[in-house]
Amino acid sequence: MEKGSERSILIAGAGPVGLTLALELARRGIRPRLVAKASGPTPSNESRALGVNARTLTLLEECGATPLILHKSRRINRFRVASRGKPLLTVDTAKLRGRYSPLYALPQGDTEDILIALLAQHHIVPEWRTAVEDVTGGTEKPAVLLRHADGTSETVSPDILVGADGSHSVVRERCGFTFPGESMDMPFYLADYRYTQPVETGYAEGNFLNPGVLARIPVREDTLRYISTREDYEAQIVHPGEIRDKPWVSSFRVSFRHVESMRRGRVFLAGDAAHIHSPIGARGMNLGIEDACWLAWLISEGREAEYSDLRMPAIETVIKATRRNTVFVTLRNPILTGLRRLLLPWLSLFPATTRAVLRTVSGRDTPPPPWIPGAK
């Protein structure tokens, strides 16, 4: 196949996945066009993704994002598990050796700001408020109808079209990709609390309320996120300080879905456009960034036809793991929750088990990038 620099590339979606793909192409001398329906990057107070794992940091070293992420993020040193406030298990992230800790906390908006600034150094700016309205002509010669903020429209025919336009992807729908899967009937509730003073951000915690679960995740030095399956979760929170405000409150339902192929002709999907799953384990954004880095490398090598075959095993591995972990965390049966409470303290006696958990959290359970020497 032709090398990527000789062809036009249109990326739909300017979240972390689309931005990473554009940046990884640009540093290889390929200039894509990047359009997004959104009016700008994710607002800082609505950071849907928080975790940046070790695999992502390895992937973003060469584009220069990694040191900037490390400078702004909060390193998670421990994962704690409790049952109704009683400690059951603490896992020290240092038990998994590597250049980076398994997981860091950084609001999605901050990650996007870093990628946008680096992309600007290549003189590429996302075209905000430019929506993909339709794709016609088939997947071998896609014709993309774009609608601009001023109401004008434009039709472009890129050599490569990439849908990084999220779980409700127009590119996926218009180009005939199937998106099978299932949704959980259990709602999840979310609230970010900002405190008047800095709080402890060195750990993430899951507290089983039996029934239900309440998770605590650091956001910033003075902000914590709480996620729960119980509608009355806010009454269960033991706050670490005086509350200043609640920057964000939301609710959502979890689905497990993925396309059967991530490529059809000259159309490719990445990130949530191709796969969605539970946020447990913080794999969503990281897996999408992984997609973007692999696709950019393959395009630069003229091997993009291999993209789906190379990525689908990783997608299936992650969805299987997140489904298993989500079922474990959301158990309702009192007998099973009792067994869980008895089992978890014993895990500390099996170092191989805790290392396997940390390896999954770090993103090192998928194939290492072959273009980065020494990557694990």
Describe this structure in a few short sentences.
By secondary structure, the protein is an alpha+beta fold. 28% of the residues lie in helices and 28% in strands.
Estimated share of beta-strand residues:
25-35%
Q: Decide which structural class fits the backbone.
A: alpha+beta
Low-pLDDT runs of 5+ residues are: none
Spatially, the strands of the biggest sheet line up as: 6-5-13-14-15-12-16-19
What does this protein look like?
There is one protein chain. The chain has 376 residues and is an alpha+beta fold. The protein contains nine helices and 19 strands. The protein has helices at residues 16-26, 54-59, 65-72, 108-120, 170-174, 284-301, 307-329, 334-343, 351-362, and strands at residues 9-12, 33-35, 51-53, 74-75, 78-83, 86-92, 103-105, 131-136, 143-147, 153-156, 160-163, 181-195, 203-208, 213-220, 223-228, 243-258, 263-264, 267-269, 275-276. An eight-stranded mixed β-sheet has the order 6-5-13-14-15-12-16-19, with helices on one face. Strand 13 (203-208) and strand 14 (213-220) form a beta hairpin. Helix 1 packs parallel to helix 4 (108-120). The longest helix is centred in the last third of the chain and has 23 residues, at 307-329. The radius of gyration is 21 Å and the shape is globular. The relative contact order is 0.18.
Relevant terms:
28% strand, 9 helices, eight-stranded mixed beta sheet, five-stranded mixed beta sheet, alpha+beta, 28% helix, globular, 376 residues, single chain, 19 strands
What is the topological layout?
Blueprint: E1 9-12, H1 16-26, E2 33-35, E3 51-53, H2 54-59, H3 65-72, E4 74-75, E5 78-83, E6 86-92, E7 103-105, H4 108-120, E8 131-136, E9 143-147, E10 153-156, E11 160-163, H5 170-174, E12 181-195, E13 203-208, E14 213-220, E15 223-228, E16 243-258, E17 263-264, E18 267-269, E19 275-276, H6 284-301, H7 307-329, H8 334-343, H9 351-362
Parallel strand pairs: 1-2, 1-11, 5-13, 11-18
Antiparallel strand pairs: 3-7, 4-7, 5-6, 8-9, 9-10, 12-15, 12-16, 13-14, 14-15, 16-19, 17-18
Helix pairs in contact: 1-4, 1-6, 3-4, 6-7
